[in-house]
Every structure is written in structure tokens, then in C-alpha cells.
Amino acid sequence: MINLTVMEALCLPALSDAVLIAGEKGLQNLITSVNIMEVPEIDRFVNKGELLVTTTYPIKDSIKAQNNLIPNLVNKGVSALAIKPVFYDNIVPPNMIKQANEMNFPLIQLPITASFNNILNPILSEILNRQATILQKNEEVHKKFTDLVLRGGDLNDIAKMLSTLQDNPVSIHTNKLRKLALSISNSETSFNQIINELCIDAKQFSKIICNQTGVIDFEYRDIAIKILVHPVIIAGERYGSLILWLTSHDQFDINIVEQAVTIVALEIVKHTAVMEVERRFRSFLIEEIIQKKIQSRIDVVTKGEAYGWDLTSKFLPIVIEIEDFFKFYELDYSISSPANILKKLWTEVSNSANHYNLDTIIVDIGSKILILVKQRFDTIGPNIPSKLFKRIQQAISFDKKIVINAGVGRLIEDIMELSEGYEHAVKALEIGRQINGKSSITHYDDLGSFRILISEKHNPELRKFSGELLGDIIKCDEESKSNLMETLEMILKCNFNLKEAAQNMFIHYNTIRYRVKKIEELAKIDMNSSSDCLSLQLAMQIRKIQKSV
Q1: In whole angstroms, how large is the CA radius of gyration of the chain?
Q2: What is the pLDDT of residues 470-507, one digit of tens each?
Q3: What is the distance between the terminal CA atoms of the chain, rounded to a whole angstrom?
Q4: Based on the domain organization, do 120 and 163 belong to the same domain?
Q5: 466 and 502 part of one domain
Q6: Counted domains in the chain
Q7: 66 & 157 share domain
Q8: What is the pTM of this model?
Q9: Highest mean pLDDT: which range of 73-82, 243-252, 515-524
Q10: What is the pLDDT at residue 378?
Q11: Contact (CB, 8 A) for 169 and 228
Q12: What CATH number is attached to the domain comprising 229?
């Protein structure tokens, strides 16, 4: 063992004549230094891990001080006390022996002929020699890891080296315990299957660990398992975990583990930087296609092949955006930066697509995430966009302030039609947010008459038409807070069923009838007229479109 224990110290020649008279259960206490007691209140001058040597001269005449000595030393974390009892007729006071046994504190009796110098110097030398061994070992391990990185070693190589050094299996995981690397060496066959199962099933493994760190004991399939979980921290943020599976033995060198964790962190930073650059180039290519800067289909397909994309396929475009993204960031500077939030959203989108085994192209365009779902077997399940959106919503629960909306465009038969497909998805997102509210996903084909109105959204006649019908109603609401627009919206939602609208608004039926009469007067329409009702619906749709522009 690298660190010196009390038991090992008693085996040194300097303490060959010493006798352990109490506290046998504390023999594994580690000694990091030695000290001599020269003053009564010694607990003010001792440190954790020290072996204290004394004749108890400073407290020889104080029973109270004798009774307080061992409890105070235990509280300070002192490893052991060695007494040369010259003032007690060569007998250690019985009360000290009793306390030492009760507190599992090693109490050593030195022979009357013992010299403190002959005890302190050999123990200090042993401690220094062991520390030098630790430093030398750490330097050797550091060199091994450094050479590994310089040779281009990856996370699997790091796990394999640490596994060899610690003679135990090693796994490296993301923050959600998805396996990144695994090395099983010198492990019992019965444990190999268990380790593989837990490393593959990140959800089950996460429930077992529950964000704990350090040494963890648990049972799996009625087998007791012990692991060391060490977090991988980068810039104050946890990026993953390194796990040492203590199957061969319970001993491990934390210094070596920490060196491995540092190398893992550097490898993750390097990998993340490379992925970020590649992600930007991927996004840039898709933006060029959307903006029709590349006119040749052959060029588009060829450039896509460089990223492993088959752009000859058909794709369903889905656009996801965070509600009021930059606005909510400006209101709360305590949250992550916009870039980090988008990166996390992009990661969750990618993980969700993988969950459903979808073949996708995922890029970020400004504050939006574009997902191109490749059509397979001549069809894309009609529920896939909704299922994907729901899973992404659940995954971004890392910040409850974040609300996302999504729009689904029409199937793109040819990649050169991406501009129109993207535009349709964006329109579905923007109008759907107005029609269906926040946290909604809207298909372009479900917009109905909105699609016609969208194409003419800048036509001044539309604004004039909406203003003539709704202008006085809006003005009345602003002046008297009469809730007429809210009432009208509910009536349209209930297909002009006044009784249902009143129930949904928790108001009396007569109240809603009064408001209807007021709306008819201000808009100069008759709700018994189908044409007037259609005009109201169009006016409300136009207003929603104008608000989304």
C-alpha cells in the first residue's frame, strides 16, 4: 500500500518495542505526518493524519485534560497517539485506554527507553519515501497517458489503459450515462455480461446511480456490485462520468483515476470542437441549398456525400424553434448562453431522432433547428413528427423556461425543392403558434385557408378587410376591457355554439349573448348570416397572420 497505516508503522524497527494497548479497529488509519505534544491544548496545533508522540507532561497533573485529550484528537482527525508514560509509573491512565477502545483510536505505549528522535525520523523518512514513490508513479502514469494522446488515442484507448493500470473494468459515459467507451480486462465472466447490460441500458443505469459520485454499492440481478463514479467536469459543467468497476478488488489509486479523467476531459473537448466545426459546415451547406446559391443538383448531391448524406432521397422538413428565444435570454442572464442552449437543443433533437431510428439530417439555421427526415419504404409514419416533437419536449426539461414550437412542411420530392419545403415548415411553425398556442406542432397541410392568406399576407386589402370588421371591437376592448375579442375567438372555436362557448369561458349564457349583440353592433354583421360568419373567421385568421409577420 502506498500510504502508511498505523499497523505498518508499528512494524517499523523504530517501533518494534512499542505496544498497541487500545483502538485496534483503527489500525488502518493513515499517517501523513508526525508531531510532538509540548503544550496542554495540543488539539489547536495538530492536523488530520498525524501520529502524535508525547510523555503527557503538559497534562500530567490535570485529570480533566487527560479525559479530554483523546476525544479532542479524534475530532481533529489525528491517526494515533503514542505515549511514553514516565509520569504514571509506566502505566497509561485507564480512562485513556477506555476512551481509545470506545472511539477505535489507536493508543500506543512506548518503552521507557524510547527516544522521540529515533521514532520520528524513521517514520518521516518512510512517509517521504512513499510520497516519492507516489510522485514517481504519477509521473510514469502521466507520461503513459500523454504518449497515448499524442499517438491519437481515443476514449476507448484511455479506458483500456486505465483498466490495465487499475486491474478493473472501466467505462466512460455521457452526462446521461450513454456509453462512450468500455474496457473489460481481467474481469470475471459473470460480471462481463452485467457490465455490458448496464452500459448499454443508459436509462436503467441512470436510475441506479441517480447522479451519485464516489464509491457506490448496489445490487443488480441479485449480485452485489461496487463502482467508483468520477464526474468529468469541463469549465464547471459536468459532461460525463468515468466509472471504475471494482470487480477484481476494492483497491484503486484515486490519483491515477483523476489523471485519466483529465485526459478524458481533454479528449471530449477536442472531439466537441471538431464536431462543432463540422456541424457549422453542414449547416452552411443546407443554408446554401435553401438560398438556392448552388444551382447544380449534381454539386448538391456531391457535397452532401462528403458528409455521408444521400441527397437523392425524399425528405420531410421539420423546423423547431424556442419561443421568444433571444427575448427570454435577455430577461434572465442566469441561464446558459444562447449558443449553449441551442447546442443542447440540437443534441436532444439528435438523440430523439436516434431513439426512433430515423435517418435524418439535423442542422441549425439561426435560432431554428431544421430536421430533414429521410423517407424510407416510400412512406413516413404520419405520427412520427408528433412523436418526435413530444420526445424532444420531454428531453429539454433541463430548463422549464424553454418552450418550443414546431412546423412540418410538405414532403420534398427533390432536394432542389428544399427552399420551398423549408419555407412551408417555417410558415406552419409561425402560423401554428398563433392558431394552436405555445408548445405546438403544426403541419403546413393542416393550415387550410391560412395557406391562401399567407401568400397574400402583405396585401394591404387584407389588413383593411380585417380592420373594418374587428377595429371597433379591439378599440372597445382597449377602452373598457370588455373581453369581446376573447369571446369572439371562443365562439369561433366552438363553431358558433354559444352555450358551449359560455361553459368554456365560465360565464353565464346571458352574458355571452350580450357580448354577441355588442360584437354584431360594432362589426355591423349578423351572426345568423353564414356569409357574415365566414367574414369574421377570415378577419380573425388575417389578424393572426398579421401578428405573426
Answers
A1: 37
A2: 888 888 888 888 888 888 888 888 888 888 988 888 88
A3: 71
A4: no
A5: yes
A6: 4
A7: no
A8: 0.54
A9: 73-82
A10: 47
A11: no
A12: 3.30.450.40
